[in-house]
């Protein structure tokens, strides 16, 4: 019967409902057991609030990232700063091994690191993202051997273009061109020394706080799983297989830094079929570009931009024409004065590098 006010009174939980709630717990052979004793009975609780995603990296991704950082230092004049011609290559290999250590959340031998480089590496460390009362744990699994690094590097994505760490030797070819020499065999001690010299050089470029040397620590940036996003190419490509002019990045949670969503091509991700993406963003670049961008004095607003960076293509035909014109002038100079070998070096400077 309804109360005087005409409204139906809500009934409380009866005995039958309380019995259903009581019987809802786990049981073995009809006998109720406590949740904390499930493991002793070889039973896994279904109330696990953690999802683990192990992402496989392609073999050239870490090398791409390290190359971008060292190449930027070379563009500033690092080769003339160091007394050892092998140092750029040694620093490149050591930085690659340091990044590999960071993927396992361990600390390399070096005690100092550039603030910008430390932040970049922190994006690649294992990430724990809180979402809907649960945790998503992201980890990288590298797929390369740092000890097998060659001094040459394929730029890709096609065409056979390469870069290298060779340097001029004392042997002169045809009385004009120095013969290029490969770096000596790498060792961990030589790599650490070269890496420290690289850090010293970059920290003295007067670029302010991003290039300050600070202790090597974990996670100076907030949890951000953007680097673990799977990306698929829309236009262009890169040597790592995960970059291009235009990419679509996908992730199970928010993509806070699309610039870092260039490490995992969908072809290298063996778990892509079981991943459940909830956000997609347009991005661009490559691991090499991310390393180069973070190594510079780039504003945080530019690095964390949600708008894809636009790249301008290089007209290689114009470069070829410039080189051909230079070679013609050098040959003409040699024909006009073939007896004088003491020409000033400025006579033979290539316009595209001078």
Structure description:
The chain is of the alpha+beta class. The chain has one domain (51-303). It contains 9 helices and 15 strands. The chain has helices at 15-23, 61-76, 78-81, 87-103, 115-122, 188-203, 287-295, 300-303, 316-336; strands spanning 27-28, 31-32, 50-56, 112-114, 127-131, 134-141, 152-154, 162-164, 167-173, 177-181, 213-215, 230-235, 244-251, 264-265, 279-285. The strands form 6 sheets. Strands 14-12-13-15 form a 4-stranded mixed β-sheet, with helices on one face. It starts with 14 loop residues before the first helix and ends in an 18-residue tail after the last helix.
Taken as a percent bin, the fraction of beta residues is 15-25%
Rg to the nearest angstrom? 29 Å
Structural class: alpha+beta
Low-confidence stretches: 35-47
Mean pLDDT: 75
Straight-line distance between termini: 97 Å
Would you list the SSEs in sequence order as H and E? HEEEHHHEHEEEEEEHEEEEEHHH
Biggest sheet layout: 4 strands, mixed
Helix percent reads 25-40%
Q: How are the strands of the biggest sheet laid out side by side?
A: 14-12-13-15
Give the helix tally.
9
Number of domains: 1
| Count of DSSP strands | 15
């Amino acid at each position: 019967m309804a109360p005087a006010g005409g409204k139906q009174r809500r009934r409380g939980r009866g005995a039958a409902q309380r019995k259903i709630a009581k019987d809802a717990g786990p049981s073995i052979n009809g006998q109720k057991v406590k949740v904390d004793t499930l493991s002793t009975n070889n039973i896994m609780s279904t109330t696990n609030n953690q999802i683990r995603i192990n992402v496989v990296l392609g073999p050239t991704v870490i090398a791409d990232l390290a190359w971008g950082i060292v190449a930027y230092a070379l563009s500033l004049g690092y080769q003339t700063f160091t007394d050892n011609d092998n140092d750029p290559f040694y620093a490149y290999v050591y930085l690659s091994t340091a990044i590999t250590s960071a993927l396992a959340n361990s600390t390399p031998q070096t005690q100092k690191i550039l603030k910008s480089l430390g932040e970049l590496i922190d994006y690649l460390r294992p990430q724990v993202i809180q979402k809907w009362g649960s945790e998503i744990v992201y980890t990288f699994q590298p797929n390369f051997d740092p000890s097998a690094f060659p001094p040459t590097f394929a730029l890709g994505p096609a065409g056979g273009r390469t870069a290298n760490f060779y340097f001029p030797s004392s042997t002169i070819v045809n009385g004009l061109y120095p013969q290029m020499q490969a770096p000596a065999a790498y060792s961990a001690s030589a790599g650490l020394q070269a890496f420290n010299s690289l850090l010293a050089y970059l920290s003295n470029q007067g670029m302010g706080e991003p290039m300050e040397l600070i202790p090597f620590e974990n996670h100076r940036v907030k949890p951000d799983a953007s680097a673990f996003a799977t990306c698929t190419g829309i236009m262009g490509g890169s040597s790592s297989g995960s970059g291009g002019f235009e990419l679509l990045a996908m992730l199970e949670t928010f993509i806070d830094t699309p610039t870092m969503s260039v490490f995992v091509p969908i072809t290298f991700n063996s778990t892509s079929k079981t991943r459940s993406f909830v956000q997609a963003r347009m991005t661009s670049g490559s691991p090499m570009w991310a390393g180069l961008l973070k190594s510079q004095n780039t504003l945080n607003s530019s690095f964390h931009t949600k708008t894809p960076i636009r790249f301008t293509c290089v007209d290689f035909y114009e470069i070829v024409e410039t080189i051909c014109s230079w070679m013609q002038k050098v040959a003409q100079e040699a024909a006009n004065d073939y007896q004088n070998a003491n020409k000033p070096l400025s006579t033979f400077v290539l316009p595209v590098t001078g």
